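Case study 2.
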Amino acid sequence: TINPQPPQQLLTYSGLPFCISITTPQLPQPPVTSGGIYSVTPPIPGFNSATGVITPSSLPAGSYTVRYTIPFSASGCLPVNAEEIVIIKPYNTIAAGIDRTTCINSAITTITLATTGATGATVTGLPTGVSSSWSGNILTISGTPTASGTFTYTVTTTGGCPPATTTGTIIVTPLNTIAAGTSQTVCINNAISPIT
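Prediction:
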């Protein structure tokens, strides 16, 4: 008896990559051929080799290689394998916002906030002349404000699971002003008029 080789297998999980906040079990799509077993590297305690189910919230963030194998005994031929890389993304974090006080038209002391798990960040509420940038898990806020007032800024990470936010305050004080001086001419021993 010559048994046919089982067809090429496909192993896929819908919705990859998974956020670590997902608490519902994630099943792979049904295999082309039944009778196989699932395995995972690195090992997951309690992994169900019959179903290949993965619950992201119960695992450390990282990359897992799931394999579906139809062994020799089931196929009658050489083993057939299919693999899928399952990525579980970590929670985003961001450092607490930092407050700054400066005079108008004077540069603020640069604000740097560390992030984790993000691919970027957006900032709203900055005064005119102040901007932000994100690179290498560091958000930087810098610049020279050209408007006075109290500005509450909000930072929101992007590309994470889920986004993290923080706020801070930038106080920009206006320049000191004083009215022009006035001149008076009086005789000695006579009071001058009050100057205000």
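The radius of gyration is 32 Å.
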